[in-house]
Known about the structure:
Chain A is of the alpha+beta class.
Amino acid sequence: MVNLTINGEKLAVAENSTVLEAAQQAGIHIPTMCSHKDLTPYGACRLCVVEVKRNGRTVVTTSCNTPVEEGMDVTTETEEVNATRKTMANLLYSRCPEVPAIQRMAASVGLLQPSFENANPKEDCILCGMCVRACDDIAQEHVLGFVGRGMDRKVTTAFDVRQEVCDTCNKCVTYCPTGAITHLEAPKIGLGFKKKAHTWKVARVIFQYTTLLVFLGLMAATLFNVLQPLTVNIFSRLNPLQALVAPLAGRDLITNYIPALLTVVLTIVFGRVWCGWFCPLGAVFELFGRKDRHFKWQNMRKLKYVILAVIVVMAAFGGLAFMWFEPITVFIRGLTAIFKPLIQYVQLDKKKDFIMPGFQWFAIAIPFVFALLVNIIEKRFWCRYLCPLGALVGLGSKFSWIKRFVNQDSCVKCGECATHCPMGAISPENDFKSDPAECIMCMDCAEPCPKLAITFPKGQLGGWGYEFDPGRREALGTIGASAVAVGLLSLDVGNVQAAKKSVLRPPGAYYNDFLSKCIRCDQCIEVCPTHYIQPAAFEAGWDSLYTPIVDPFVGYCTYDCTLCGQICPSHAIPLLTLEEKQNYSIGGVGWAQVNFDTCIRCMTCLDECPYKCFEEVEVEGHKGVFPRVRDDANCVGCGVCVDVCPKQEVKAVVVFPYGKVPEEKYKFTKYTKA
Amino acid sequence: MSNPTANVKLALEELRDELMATYDPSKPCVTVCAGTGCCASGALEVKAALDEEIKKQGADVHVDIKITGCRGFCEQGPLVAVLPTKIFYTKVKQSDAAQIIAKTILKGEIIDKLLYKDPVTGEKITHETDIPFYKEQHRILLHDSGSIDPTSFEDYLIVGGYKALAKALLTMQPVEIIEEVNQSGLGGRGGAGFPTGKKWQLCRQAPGTEKYVIVNADEGDPGAFQDRSLIEANPHSVLEGFIIGAFAIGANHGYVYIRHEYPLAVERIKIAINKAREHGLLGKNILGSGFDFDVTVQMGAGAFVCGEETALMASIEGFLGEPHARPPYPAQSGLWGKPTNINNVKTWATVPYIINKGAGWYSQMGTETSKGTTIFSLVGKINNTGLVEVPMGISLRDLIEKVGGGSPSEKKLKAVQTGGPSGGCIPESLWDVPVDYKSLGKLGSIMGSGGMIVMDESTCMVDIARYFLNFSRFESCGKCTACREGVTRMYETLDYITRGYGQEGDIEQLEELCKSIKAGSLCGLGQTAPNPVLTTIKYFREEYEAHIREKTCPAGVCKELITFYILPDKCTGCSLCARYCGDQAISGEKGGLYVIDPDKCQRCGVCREVCNFDAVVVR
């Protein structure tokens, strides 16, 4: 052991240790940019200067390569030492003004601006020689070395030729304090790593946009009513949020959602890949918007969990009112609102027959337009702060087998990764790690990392208790918000409950627990060839927003069509056979009734009714023979009668929900031909 | 060390006796200086002409002809001296050869036009020793430079060469040798002046049997050529001292690290080593003493920093020539991690004289702290530029004005820069200080390897600081931040100042940088690189201020800050300047007045040089 004094503190340290090591042992901080415990001391950066008194002589020298001596008296901060250190920091800062690690080091010695200008401000190598020593000492490859003198000095390989071993070794990379190592011109350190990262990224982008194209293709198929053999609602059926809440609220095992288990498995293995690789809406968001964080209030990320909690808790109580917030439905509705009328217009022979849909129709695209607009603030704004599906797969990702991992031994906190993150998931306050629930595994950050510090390893980190998990207060807040949601559910503003029963639902919905299963995707609206199915606004209560209602004044239910039942992923509109749909007690929509006051007795309805529901009656106080739906008829409320009725504006025939059919005002008798 | 052969007459001594018997000191001998300087001005052609003439005139039985090493008076080369009368001819041309043989050799006449003319008195001087340049010197190391053929082993023997080696190896113990060197007070001539005896002792005491010694002949300062000249003139003296030192230290292998840019010196030291090896002075069992020693010549690729001992050793080992931190010192862990002693050429060459004549003789010369003589290369704005050897303690004024012969023009001398790019500029007012390690250090300069550059009024001190920093920044190895970045930043600041972009606060910033670089640099290069800046700021601050505040260059050097101007009353309208001007910046009519257009003028100064009437001035 050697005895020495550092800053007046008496110490005994092992022989052959350096002054720097002794100081570190004593907990005294000496700044340095070129020393590392694994590497032989070099003395290049000159930041670690200290004042050393030995044998009556006082010198200012570097502590990293001065061996301790018996009786040595070291002072780590004197006026001269501090001035020298500051100048050295200034010189390094002036050389590499844009390197965050240098900026932090300079700030730590009280220097906020470099004094000199550098002709090449992008320079990031401080020539500390750590890579060269790592190559010599650790890797023992002796590939890297210095070339040139003075300002021309640089790190490179022999004859500026890239060496094969560099593709596999990369041992130097960890030691580089600035991140310059992978920017070296000739050696191209980490090229293999970056190529791999790039390949993954390209694979991801290709997969993502292929998915988007498939989705758009399926949407087109839906619009053109080609459902078979394509499973056009597969994006809904893979959707774990729908798969969770629809059966929960509907108290029914919906077999349609079995594919969602695949997503669950993928999430548990790979994390939030749904969002980064699969989600077609996410692919659209990727097309524009700013990466990194720009929105100040990052706590708003928790909002999506609140939304998720509200949806799930309401589902537990049987309601799905906010499912219109689910991203796949948002996208489908957005496309439907635009393309459904467009295709109709194109297909029309007489363009002037085209009727522009009203605001209520286009209102279904409001969430989609909103999501696109906020994407301008930040890329994937929706995914970051609002998406309940993202929240759900995010929670699953906390337990995922594969996670983004930042090697803190290598990371120099340059923040390059954060500028590439489309989710703003990378947290500068948290050593540029990311919450697995926020990371969508897009892998865009791996390639730009100059320290090759970002990997996606298996079996790292785990579940709860991780640094990004919410605090108790946030959890309580979420539960509170859900309670409010349940309150909303039971809220009966005005005649909401009554309103619910006042609308017509698509075939079979009447006999189903429709509102507890409808996930508001509006694919039924999209697919309906006659525009019979229309979106609801608030006419059926606030919690029926965007649910499908049928409007016989717009279209009619085609006799031999069961497309809406086929496409409905949650079986809210039951999957009926043609016979079942044509049976009013299974697939009925409502009951038609002729208004004898306005009917002009043209009998078209009687002729056209596919179900032969009409009889001829004579009505008391009215002249002539009127059509009327027989009491024992099989009226499914298909609306053909309304459609063919020439007196629609005075509602000569109206379809009413079952149980809402008004009593006949006048007495009538069956007419029999004389 | 017991020595069975001590009483046996050495083969070496027998050879010397044989040579002395045939050697006739009175036989005329024409010596042609063949140092690099004289060779460059045609000495080898002169030698060839002399050879031819001797044959032609049939004088070859009466006279010897030989080439010698550098005589130091390079200003006047090619130099020819006729021994033993020491008639000294300067600036000899090929065409003069016939006359020299015909008149001087055969008839004993003196050729007046080839004699040296004293620039002060205008007197012609016949003999070498009477020339003030030589008269004021005290030549020990350079004593034989002008009389022996550097490629001839025999010549060295005749002047008493290798006597010291025999004495040291056969009659002295290593500790005795070290003690003798210690007593002499010899300090390292590389510039730092560390006591040589102490250094040897440290290396000898270091544990381990494998040790190395190195001759540092990596002389890279601009304007310094002492080491080169010494090796070119008398390589055996260096070798002799080297072998003695190796014996004293206990090293069995030595390296001569010499610049690749010194081909003549490399060639001559190689010849000397081969001759010494032939005569058993290198190799196994030298002179029967049982001491083994051999030497390798290692050429440096021309990095200034390789003159630094740790960088030099790294270079020999095949690594990048960059210094490492001390401790460990080379005496503990040097070349290949073994104890190593490294000394300058001049230090090694001094050793035989100390062994021969004793420590007492040597320590008589010099001052209290710095003993002996040292060699300077004296260059710049003086009459006698060349290589001079003077005792330590001579005043700068004597050195520059007596030996150097003062200013060649009417311009007053202003300062002297000692120690090359690592030294400082000492103003004329302080020239009375004695030249030794301590007093130069006090003035902010260093002795260095002995370069001395004299400057007159027409030298801009800011520009000169910039010039030296430019050298330092290119020669910095780039390992440590202080030197690599700091020197470059200082250079940039100075460059801005000389170009008229200087700002208030630049001087203070420079001073601060200088202090930190001195404290923070890894090796001597960085630690001394700020010296030119510090001393010029210290002694010539007003010049800096003029550059920064008034944007003028008092010495009229910095191009961006000066304008050339033709004095109307002096201009005769001869049109000479206009014809020489490369930029057509001068206009006027013949017989009338010529005017310089400052926008076109590139400030090359040709007009001023060619004007016969001093009409062109700088403002």
